Amino acid sequence: MSATDWYAHKSLENGVFWIQERFYVSGNRANIWLIRGSHQDVVIDAGLGLRSLPEYINAKGLLGDDMKRRNPLLAIGTHVHFDHSGGLHQFQQVGVHKAEVDALANGDNFETVTWLSDSEIVEDPSPGWTARQYRVKAVQPTHILQEGDVINLGDRQLTVLHLPGHSRGSICLHDRDNKVLFSGDVVYDGSMIDWLPYSTVGDYVRSCRRLVEMVDREEVELVMPGHYNTFGAKRLHRLASSYISGAGTCHRVSTCAVRSVAGLALRASSCCSVGC
């Protein structure tokens, strides 16, 4: 299957494209965001990496044809979980938060929580492909990100917000001028996942408090999340507030138990995939 068949996109306002993997049918299917800038273009998250995302972007002309203007495309992972990081190795420039640099550089399929089933891939990307073969390929990040860093696209800037909880290196990218938040898996319109390896409920509560404060300060009007559909400030406030109110002692105890089971399952899955 070609890259042009594997992906599909929608053109949104202000030079933003929403890209998805057509034949990955799962709640884990991540949104891929391409943002055009006057000097730098950025991809936020890169999907599974089963077909070439750069090839698709170029074939569809999403970056235009001004080669003199264009800097190498920068791919930023909001975190290193497999559904977001699997395609990062396809890019010359790659950025992730400093807490997850080693996981990506080592191809750590435990921290990337690589867990893919054949049933989720409804059309094989290549002959004889099986989910058991799938691994997140190691790549050395060229951009090591941390809180407060600014990604300068020329006519717009994206500020890095370190908001751990879902993972230890989870970030959002905040377009302050346009009041847009690219939220990764820190928040989306669904149940927040805090039971994976390196998830931490306490960190997640603190991150959600920051999100509530951002809404209260009217710094966000639109959220472009890592999964599902976009939503506005009121929904962001409600989602973050609900997580905070639900993160009591019972939730923390049950989450700890589920994390232990999930960790054992991921260890076993990772071990089997490398034949140990």
From TrEMBL:
<protein>
    <recommendedName>
        <fullName>Metallo-beta-lactamase domain-containing protein</fullName>
    </recommendedName>
</protein>
<dbReference type="InterPro" id="IPR036866">
    <property type="entry name" value="RibonucZ/Hydroxyglut_hydro"/>
</dbReference>
<feature type="domain" description="Metallo-beta-lactamase">
    <location>
        <begin position="29"/>
        <end position="227"/>
    </location>
</feature>
<dbReference type="InterPro" id="IPR050855">
    <property type="entry name" value="NDM-1-like"/>
</dbReference>
<dbReference type="InterPro" id="IPR001279">
    <property type="entry name" value="Metallo-B-lactamas"/>
</dbReference>
<dbReference type="Pfam" id="PF00753">
    <property type="entry name" value="Lactamase_B"/>
</dbReference>
